[in-house]
Amino acid sequence: MTKFWRVRDGLFAPIALAANEFARELTGRLSAVNLGGASTYLRGSLLEHIAPHANADLDLIVIWGNDPPTRTVIEALQEHVREFNRALDLSVLSETQIHRHVPQRLLLHTRAFRVNGPEKRFAPVRADVETMKYHFAAYAPWFPPDEMWASTRSRVSALKNLTRCFGVLSFIHRE
What we know:
CATH superfamily of the largest domain: Beta Polymerase, domain 2
Helix content: 40-55%
Strand order of the largest sheet: 5-4-3-6
Number of domains: 2
Number of strands: 6
CATH architecture of the largest domain: 2-Layer Sandwich
Number of helices: 7
C-alpha cells in the first residue's frame, strides 16, 4: 500500500485496500459480534503492512448511527480481539462526530477497511489548507516534551504525532 495520499479534483482519494491476512482473520472473529447497527473499521499498520511490526497496536473505529453501542457490546468486541494480544486503540464515534472530526473522516474515507457491520459512506475531504489545520491541531506538535522519560509506548506515540505534523507541513508547502 502506498504511504502517500492521492488527490483528485481537490479531494483526497480513497486508496484501494485489499484485506491482508490479519484483516481477514479479524473480520472472521468479529462476525460473531452484533454491534446493533454500528460498524467497525480497521485502520493503521495492521491493515497497511503485509508484515506489521510485532508491537503494532490494533486500531479500530466503531461508528454508530442513531443509538450508541452499549457497554456490553463494546466489551464483547474487546473480548473478541483479546486473542490477538495487541494493544487496542478503540475509538467509538457517531456518524455526526465523524463528519466534524476531519482527520478521522479522512482516514475512514481513504485508508480503512470494514471488519464488522454495515458499510457506511464517509464524505470526501478537501485537500486544502483548512484540512491541514485540522490535522495540525489534532496531532498536537506541542505535545512532546523536551525530554521523554515516559514509557516506550508513549514515546512512540509522541514521535508518530510529531512525524504526522511534518507530513502536514510538507503537504501545505507543496500546495
